[in-house]
From TrEMBL:
Assigned keywords, A-Z: DNA-binding, Phosphoprotein, Transcription, Transcription regulation
Annotated transmembrane regions: none
Modified residues (4-aspartylphosphate): D58
Organism, scientific name: Rhodococcus sovatensis
InterPro entries: CheY-like_superfamily, NreC/VraR/RcsB-like_REC, Sig_transdc_resp-reg_C-effctor, Sig_transdc_resp-reg_receiver, Tscrpt_reg_LuxR_C, WalR-like
Protein name, UniProt field: Response regulator transcription factor
Residues of the HTH luxR-type domain: 152-217
CDD domains the UniProt entry points to: LuxR_C_like (cd06170), REC_NarL-like (cd17535)
Gene3D superfamilies noted in UniProt: 3.40.50.2300
Superkingdom field: Bacteria
Pfam families: GerE, Response_reg
Keyword DNA-binding among record annotations: yes
Amino acid sequence: MENIAVRVLVADDEPLVRAGIVGLLGTDPGIEVVAQAGDGQQALDVLRSRRVDVALLDVRMPGTSGLEALAQARREGLGGRYVFVTTFGEDEYVSQAIVLGADGFVLKAGSPRELLMAVHAAASGGAFFSPAVVRRVLEESQIAGFGQAQQARTLFDRLTAREQDVIRLVGRGCSNAEIAADLFMAEATVKTHMTSILRATGARNRVEVALVAVRASEA
């Protein structure tokens, strides 16, 4: 069976940065850049008019920012997955992105491999944060209700043994398909467990579930 490439939108207001990202993605035969945008409004126009599997968004862009674009995409019910590409010094935006349901955060100065991993993880239903970003989030306890290890452990302990198996793998960035394969269960069963985990922990999305798993392991 022929593999279908992940269709990606790249949105960044700096042409040189955008070209660099497009060039990097072009080295992966499993990724196809189907559109580019110079600001959040252009990104929204693309998302409304064509199928995009993963949108790579710069956090700060003139006019409509990446965060504003994601918020609007959620309000309109636009499909696709959303990964932010950012720089150090923008930590305050990470929590906002997570609340909006972002599927990943990678650093512009990070390893090129992380960007490719983030695209594939998001496309397959998982989430990916650059390790450096995760450390900054956890160190500064930016996510209210999920910042303290003991509190996360309390949430973790509410789960059944099987749900704990699932959340550990979510914390490693695994997709539902990967979790199903690792735990020898149907993908539909994984989705059922995820629904229960979200309800039990009060997490709003998969990334917050992952943060619970990471923090709980530190308790």
